[in-house]
Amino acid sequence: MAYHVAIHWPDFLQKYWQKQPVVLRRALFPFVDPLSADELAGLAMEELIDSRLVSRQQGKWHVQHGPFESFDHLGECDWSLLVQAVDHWHPVAAGLMEPFRSLPNWRLDDLMISFSVPGGGVGPHIDQYDVFIIQGMGRRRWRVGAKGDHPQVCPHPGLLQVADFTPIIDAELEAGDILYIPPGFPHDGYALEPALNYSVGFRAPNQRELFSHFADYLLQQDGGNQRYSDPELQPSTAAGCIQNHEVQQLRDMMQALLTHDDFAHQLAQSLSEAKHELALEPVEPPFTEGEIYDRLEAGERLVRLGGLRALYLEGEELVCFINGEAFSVPDGAFALIKLLCDQTVTMPNQLDAYLSQPEVLAWLSMLINSGYWYFEADMQSEDEA
């Protein structure tokens, strides 16, 4: 199923992106839910899928984490089931990510889907990332407040909320409507009737995360071993003082690491890591290169695994980054890398120029046999089975 969003991206980015929230009426219309509430409940029963149940009973909040065995004990109001990274596991639902690929792939995070009964929600809270909330089945009322100092409250160890706020948006969303919320704006939504919501979230690493990942990388690579030196040291009249030029020299040592090629490579490698499990299944037995050649020649399409992060660096043609790993790129294959990383689906005619290059075909075969890309027909066969 192909979804198309009625957003003029240049105008949207200039007026709303990280500036102000907005309701986009009928932005995905006509809207067809890619899965049912029962299918979502089935995903929440799986061991590898991150899910939680948020409910409110007699004024008290409760949070349970999956996998769940049953939902029969739940009432008809005041609870929500939330399932993370559904795009990793449900190819049709993953199609909801495609209209947002006018934005950089490395910024896209995952698709969270929630099913809520009347009154169900997670309470007023603030996210530190951009999110597009798509309304599916049912209706939901959303309130969004202005940025500011909003006291935090913690009604349950697994639930961080904020105090109530004065809304600048107070709207009911129906199927096909989208609510965009930038980071830092308090919001609260609850279902008016049984409802499905689809949240397309965006990744926004903070400084602590970036430094932590880089420090881990240096330890693994045994890097960052340059030591401080001061061959021009002079006698000190204040032995307890760290002088300004010494601070600057230490800072320069640290900044030198950040300007080295290793930093860009580590950064790309880190950004290519998925935060949630992937439905990764290496091909057994592996396809031969001849089999892959024949299937592509026959016109079969290649599809990137749902949730897989495949990235490359501007100006760097010798390496790409897939699922937290760096891969050397064969000579002359950078245009192929761009195709695979920029597009979710690769058409066979786009690969014609590479099939006659044995080294490139071998490299592409490695990616397919690893489960990172698959033939669309194989997924359809599994669905029919």
From TrEMBL:
* Oxidoreductase listed as a keyword: yes
Q: Which Pfam families match?
A: JmjC_2, WHD_ROXA
Tell me if Aminoacyl-tRNA synthetase is a UniProt keyword of this record.
no
- Show where the JmjC domain sits: 92-219
Q: PROSITE patterns recorded for this chain?
A: JMJC
UniProt keyword list:
Dioxygenase, Iron, Metal-binding, Oxidoreductase
Q: Which Gene3D superfamilies match?
A: 50S ribosomal protein L16 arginine hydroxylase, Chain A, Domain 2, Cupin
> What cofactors does the UniProt entry give for this protein?
Fe(2+)
**What is the protein's name according to its record?**
JmjC domain-containing protein
